[in-house]
Amino acid sequence: MQLDLFPTYPRLSLADLPTPAHDWRQDWKLFDYPTEDDKNMAQSKKQADTIVYLNSVLDAVLAGMKQNYFIGADVFVYFSRKERVKKEAGKYVYQTVQYQGSPDIFLAMGNALKTDDEPESFILEKVLMQSEGIPPRMVAVEILSKSNYKNKDDQKTRFKFYNELGVDEYIVVHTKPEMTFEVYWRLGGTLQSVMFYEKHKYDCPLLDIGFQIETKIKGKTKKGKDILKQTLLAFASDGSKFNNYGTEREIRIEAEAKLEGIAKELQDTKEALTEEQRALREAENERELERIEEERARKEEAVALLEAEKARIEAEKSRIEAEKAHIEAQKARTEEEKARKEAEKRAKKAEKAHLEEQKARMEEQKARMEEQKARIEEQKARLEAEARLRLVLLEMAELRGTLQKEETY
Known about the structure:
By secondary structure, the protein is of the alpha+beta class. The chain contains seven helices and twelve strands. The chain has a domain of 242 residues: tt1808, chain A, CATH 3.90.1570. β2 and β3 form a beta hairpin.
């Protein structure tokens, strides 16, 4: 696997950033940062579906991580740096230049990011301000369309932009002539191509998920060539395929929120019980003591009910997982039975062909035996004819001898 080649990512520090040193704490405020333009997100339905699919998958994956993150599809990404632009009086003049890009999918992870804010664009210098100069981990994904292949300079420009931005991983999904992956990792301070063995499969170590291109034959052309339908799929670290990501994420977030609410209620109830226990020790009136005891019993019953509800939710979650595993196992058994029947059918076909071949060989052998029998009969007739001829000649010789004797007498 490709992970054996580069098992770990080098962690960037502020000194490793590809932008030259400049006062980014102030310079980034010099520019405007638009959040939208008039361009379409994608050039085709397939490209748009792939972008939306990957964005929802990565959003669901990042939502399960214990850190803040930023993710967006076709969002503007900005960074700036000082560049030497001209030379005056023997000295170079520097000015701060803004760079802007719009990846098909862009994500960043870091404690300085605020997931709940959902900003409409990503500004590297602003994030560095919030993180005291510690850069986030960044991944950019591009789904190439027909127009991208026509404009080679555009691909070079995008690579240069992501390299200088400082992304840790750059994933390119090619769509022509077939869907394949092209991956770059940041190694030694620059993006470098990762060579892996399967061009239709890639495991992302930074996010601990896998991507795979599924190919199906949906028909034939007039010339008999296969018409392929290729789909990009994502898999979790346990091998399960992501399906309805938006719904899964909503269900998980709702369940987590409900569990957090139950935990908070439990904590509040336990704190209330502690306060009531202190009140019990201070109470001098027996009637008040009995009332407090009754109230505590009711709250303990409520706690038990909440615990039971939590256990029920966990059991339901386990049941759903088990049912999913059962369906997958049943599907595997069905595929296995289908393969077995196909194998039996091929075996019967091969056996029938073998019998036909054996029958043909027997017919051929019978014909040869008949031919040999005919040759034997012919030879026998020839021998009998020769024997009769010799007998006639012998009789003629005897007759001639007799005639000669008679003539002598």
